[in-house]
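Posting this for the archive.
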Amino acid sequence: TYAPKLILLDISDINCIQDVAKEILTCYGCVDILINNASMKVKGAVQSISLELDKKIMDANYFGPITLTKAILPNMISRRTGHIVLINSIQGKIGIPFRAAYAASKHAAVGFFDCLRAEMEEFDISVSTVSPAFICSYHRQPAPGNWEASIWK
């Protein structure tokens, strides 16, 4: 039995993920189940959302989960056991107006984890993708015309 340990991680900060994964593996020795459940979204017309915000959403929803997964994966492969779960979104399967960056990041994540599932079969590592319909999450109401402030976390 291990005492719980709180480890803070900003999944959109790709540069710190490797260090956090090392800290987790040093503390516990392994990860049996990795659940990727962080997300960021914004609502707005494509022409109203900055490319910088598109990149932040892609970092949080695509590069963050795959970076963390790649950091934990060698340990699972060496033990030939583990389960990786991606909590994604139905928008990873269908596009919805005013959610282009979010849907694109979720489509990319589905593609990556589908490929990973096939590759990990030989190592007895399970990879699951859960794509719920719309959920209510924390939201900051933006000032008029300020799309960057309309990020959902």
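The beta strands are 33-36, 41-42, 82-87, 125-130, 151-152. Residues 81 and 124 are 6 Å apart (CA to CA).
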